[in-house]
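[Automated response] Your request has been received and processed.

Submitted sequence:
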Amino acid sequence: MAFVQEEFSILHREPGWINGKQKVARLLHQAGTEVQEIYENIKDEQVVGTTDYEKCIKRLDSYFEPDVNINYERQKFRNIKKAMEQFIVKLRKQAISCDFKEKEDAIKDQVIERCTDITLKLKYFKKGKDLTLNKIMEISRLYEMEKVVSNQNLKKEEKDKEQESVNRISNVECYRCGRRGHFAKSAECNAANEI
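Generated structure:
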């Protein structure tokens, strides 16, 4: 219905061009007989509007807007799994359908509840009353960067240790042949084949 309404409003943008009843008649004509039947069967007393056209649109909107199952929407809200920023964006989008009184608090609670990293969760708790969604995203971003840098440092340390052990082997002197860089049992040792 919104598509027909948009087309219709583009057609009749000029104010005062036609009156409200004429707009209603044209809209219903353009929408077709099925919409006309629906319009006639919707009670007019429940609709609030200043003009006949506004009342018509509200009557049709009340029919065509899908019913939202709040419980189902909240279940979807509880089961969202994404990276932190994507997670919050997805939660904000889903929270619109959930009819929460305090959307931001519901989102914060969900983020904290779903956080599996204890260190990150403790960082959220340390903020106490000052914790907002923006702070959650900031803390999460910084924490992710810290983890990346920490992982890079660990990899560098592992590589350094590996290089150090290689260096130790290259300094070892074979007791059979007297050369450096291998052990006596190694296939590289020429003296092993002579015995």
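Summary generated for your ticket: Residues 133-170 form the longest helix (38 residues). The mean pLDDT is 78.
If you did not submit this request, please reply to this message.
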